[in-house]
Protein 1
Amino acid sequence: MTKWQKNAAYALAIYALSAVVIRFSAGGQGWGTALLLGLVVTPLALWMGWLRRRLTEQAAEWGRRRVRPWPEERRR
């Protein structure tokens, strides 16, 4: 499976899951409203996942580039 296909399948799964959750939530939205809200929720969820992954990568990179040693490493 290519990266594009994997991303498309992931986005479709998030869309379907969010539409079903919105449809059967306590608010009792209809299918049309649930599908439209799923279109709003899906890009937001994908962006939040991308942002979390990017921040984690940057934090790991910052940890490797730390000039001063960590306090645990100074005691050795």
Protein 2
Amino acid sequence: MDVMYYLQTFDHFLIYLTVSLLLFVIGTYIFKLLTPYSERAQIKNGNTAVALKLLGKMAGLVVVLQSAVRHSINLVDLIVWAFIAIIIQIVLHLVIEYVLTRNTSLAKEVEGGNVAVGLFLGGVSVLVGLIVAANISF
């Protein structure tokens, strides 16, 4: 076991970990800004639908971030892919909310506790994250 190798690369690990966690927080915060209700208050009050939707968005972002870390050539590359993932998640949300389901307000459904809608939206976010993550390798 080459201990020196691990000691020499530990700084890179810390830098990428810090940047990845920061990107995760930024992405989650942007998602929060786009939500018309307080996710924190809704989850605190036991709204499972909101928790599932938020967890799915966060999981979709993490999937992309892990792929970006694996395939990025530098920190700038990682940051670019992270923001691409955030933008894609936002666009997807807008398409689902306003194009595919024009007659139903999904935000109101989730805020009202519709677990099926919350699970669906969270699941779609994860699936899109998987697709984006797979394409980062090119």
